[in-house]
Specification:
- By secondary structure, this protein is an alpha+beta fold.
- Helices cover 25% and strands 28% of the residues.
- The protein has helices at 17-20, 23-29, 94-101, 105-122, 202-214, 263-275, 290-300, and strands at 35-37, 39-40, 43-44, 54-55, 66-72, 75-80, 134-137, 142-145, 153-154, 159-170, 173-180, 192-195, 218-229, 234-243, 257-262.
- Strand 7 and strand 8 form a beta hairpin.
- Helix 6 packs across helix 7.
- The chain starts with 16 loop residues before the first helix and ends with a helix.
Length: 301
């Protein structure tokens, strides 16, 4: 089975960083040729062929701030900041996920980046230093405080999250530790995950999260792959680690369940993602999740 491209990665827009800080160059792109990514709040809109819908700057809501997404085919690409940001859990809109599943990898990546950016602007209209209003700057890659006594500068943030495979070998059998969060559909298991905290390396975050959630000590942490995750704006850092022991003690505030699964059980669950079968030991993460890629990587090693 081939591994699909990592979802939300691989946008084809030229981010054109040199234009962001050049007001004249940015203004020159905001002409009749400029393209506006059509959004319903922060959800995507689709053209009759099921692709992302693009309009002109004239389609932007009155008074909306416009963020510069980049350049494609010599045309500036923009998106409008909505009145409010995302206020729903990531999986609370199944119709959105069904629609996104039909997008090309490039369109999905473009939408993911735009969603994260406009959502951040919608939720950061006031200065975190003095509380005064902020205004969009550098084409939307900065917000500046309007208080002359403060002049705070704020930048779109990305929150790092470790997501990790935990492997244990005994008597020649390789097993993976997977867990179930309360929000997961029935029988869905995935890799453990958690935010990197201040003062931590990625390796330290992996070890801490696994021990906190499952009571397992790990070592030999290695990086595998990453994924931008725009709900609201995270970088999923996929890792692999080796367990020093296999006695599970779960944190019931984080997980409903955690179990060891054999290579055969993981292989069957991954095959079932394509066939739709649900009679295996568990249901594997969907293809758009980086956990799916981690499991495929582990099977193909």
């Amino acid at each position: 089975m081939s591994t699909p491209a990592i979802a939300f990665a691989g946008a084809r827009l030229d981010r054109a960083d040199h234009i962001r800080s050049d007001p004249a160059a940015l203004d020159a792109l905001m002409d009749w040729r400029a393209r506006l990514l059509r959004l319903d709040g922060i959800d995507p809109m689709f053209d009759p062929e099921g692709n992302l819908e693009w309009g002109t700057l004239a389609d932007a809501p009155d008074g909306a701030e416009l963020v510069f997404l980049g350049v494609a085919d010599g045309k500036g690409c923009f998106a409008a900041v909505p009145p409010v940001g995302d206020q729903r859990p990531a999986f609370a809109n199944p119709r959105l996920w069904q629609a996104m599943a039909a997008l090309s990898p490039g369109d999905l990546a473009t939408y993911g980046g735009a969603r994260s950016l406009v959502d951040w602007h919608a939720r950061h209209r006031f200065c975190a230093r003095c509380g005064q209003p902020t205004k969009l700057a550098k084409g939307g890659w900065q917000r500046s405080c309007t208080n002359d006594a403060c002049k705070g500068e704020h930048f779109p943030r990305v929150d790092p999250v470790t997501i990790m495979l935990v492997e244990h070998s005994a008597k020649g059998q390789q097993r993976l530790l997977l867990g179930r969060q309360p929000r997961f559909p029935p029988r869905r298991f995935s890799a453990l995950a958690g935010f990197v905290e201040p003062g931590e390396t990625i390796e330290e975050a992996v070890a801490r999260e696994v021990h906190e959630e499952a009571g397992i000590h790990v070592n030999t942490v290695t990086y595998v792959a990453s994924q931008p995750w725009p709900f609201p704006s995270q970088l999923m850092i996929g890792c692999h680690s080796l367990a020093s022991d296999d006695v599970i003690t779960i944190d019931e505030t984080e997980l409903d369940e955690a179990r060891w699964f054999s290579r055969e059980e993981v292989a069957y669950a991954m095959q079932a993602v394509a066939t739709g079968a649900e009679d295996g030991a568990f249901i594997a993460p969907p293809r758009h999740a980086v956990a799916h890629h981690l499991l495929r990587w582990w099977l193909d090693r």
